[in-house]
Amino acid sequence: MVLAHNSLLGREYPHTSVVNAYGDRYPWAPCIGQPAVRRYLLDLAAEAAVRPGAAGTELESLGWYGLAHLHAHDKTAGVPLGDAAQYLMSLCFCPYCRDGYAESGADPDELAAAVRHALAPVWAGSGSGSGESGVPGIAALLGAEFTALSLDWRLRTARSLQEQAVAAVRAAAPPGFQVLMHADPAAYHCGANAGVDPAHILRHADGLVLPCAGGPAAREAMLGPTAPHRGPRTVLAANLGIVAGLGGNPARLAADASHAAELGATELRLYHAGLASDADLDAVRRGAGRSWRPLTDRPGPGEP
User: Fold this and answer.
1) In the predicted structure, residue 292 carries a pLDDT above the cut 60
2) CATH 1.10.10: does it fit domain 7-297?
């Protein structure tokens, strides 16, 4: 179930959207720092997740959304933006987030000016923009103090929403209802796979669905920080692309799934079987039988 990604909401209620440091709104990105948006998302999670006959749910976009929209007419690739620059372009400066930055100790006007200053060389082509990554990369662009203060507000806000959404679903669901979350273990990341602290969220949700397409390094980046926090019943689902036309590689399913299992994945998700061609599905059938042995019978961390 998709939560904090809703273009219709942004068009009809523009004040609910993320506002970047230049004053532009992202209508596809509801700002999770706004109390009314949070109430809406919690109500949506509780009402939509618990459908008749459902034994569980997967919560997608349960965190910050930002610049990257991932839609068919996206025209934001003229200047390559790396991990750190994406973070800067995704910082929200709506009235609630401005108050949040101030609460964390940052002057919101100075922070917005620092973001624009940091990105100016990127737009001019004289800054790398595409190379910096991780929190150190953000600090290299924005400075250590503003990085820490902006993260303080955003991580607290996302973490509390994630806790509350899982709790809202559990309160509305019958006993034993499974709650998974589409996630990324880089807590500052935005988008459909919302950034999380694995050690924290796995104390609340029953497991995570992790984006594991893109090669061994991408899978290691997802499962490496997450698998150590897996308990005996935790679900860690590796989400693999199987549609060749969308960049997936169904012919590599056996190898990719086996690698994911070695890294600690307990389940697979195949994205997106409903869009796959007959040829893609044939490749999946050939690879699936020999690629996967569930890990649920293996001990979790700390178990004998």
Assistant:
1) no
2) no
State the pTM of this model.
0.91
Helices (H) and strands (E) in the chain, counts: 11, 8
Average pLDDT score over residue span 96-102 = 99
Beta-carbon count within 10 A of 238 CB: 26
Instruction: Return the domain boundaries, the chain.
Output: 7-297
Classify the phi-psi angles of 70: left when phi > 0, otherwise alpha if psi is within -120 to 50, otherwise beta.
Answer: left
- Which one-letter amino acid corresponds to residue 9? L
pLDDT at 71: 59
153, burial (CB in 10 Å: exposed 0-12, middle 13-18, buried 19+): buried
Rounded CA separation 292/259 (Å): 10
CA angle 6, 8, 10 (to 5 degrees): 75
- Give the CA-trace dihedral at 259, 264, 267, 268, to 10 degrees: -30
